[in-house]
Predict the 3D structure of the following.
Amino acid sequence: MSTVHVFDHPLITHKLSLMRDKNTGAKEFRELLSEISMLMAYEITRDLPLETVEIETPICSTQAKMLSGKKLAIVPILRAGLGMVDGIMSLVPAAKIGHIGLYRDPETLEPVEYYCKLPVDAQEREILLVDPMLATGGSASAAIGFLKKRGCHNIRLVNLIAAPEGVARIQRDHPDVNIFVAGMDSHLNEHGYIVPGLGDAGDRLFGTK
């Protein structure tokens, strides 16, 4: 069973509360999302492996620790996931970026992939799949499936807020994928929105509503 990591850092909690406020405008919403994403990335990357290398300081030669092993790729689910990329990239600027675009078929209600572009070596990278909202989990589960079909198996799902229904869907469909969230909310309402949530993240992010 995948593990759910809910961050309780005071800065993350404070900034998330500001994002929930309906009076927060698009500019501040974007800035807060980027800041929270950076803070989350700091924790998510805590277990990245290190290796010992020889370097030359201004004083002498010494052994130092640097990142080793698999490199990172950030893959936002379009469109709202784009708002999380810059914050993470500010910590790991060498990461590569992919994109996954999905829409829901009006008849089957199943997610359909309309765009997918990944780094050529994505299979060799640790994938951070990012999307602010984990509601029903349908889109995230489909995106993980698309990544796996392309040979990616080191995947972490990163969300701003999640509902228990979405978490349960990911744990059922992809028990090997750990979930990282800034806030765990109580439930989905009859329209599929997370409660208390923050509304439509994409609309608030881009000012389209």
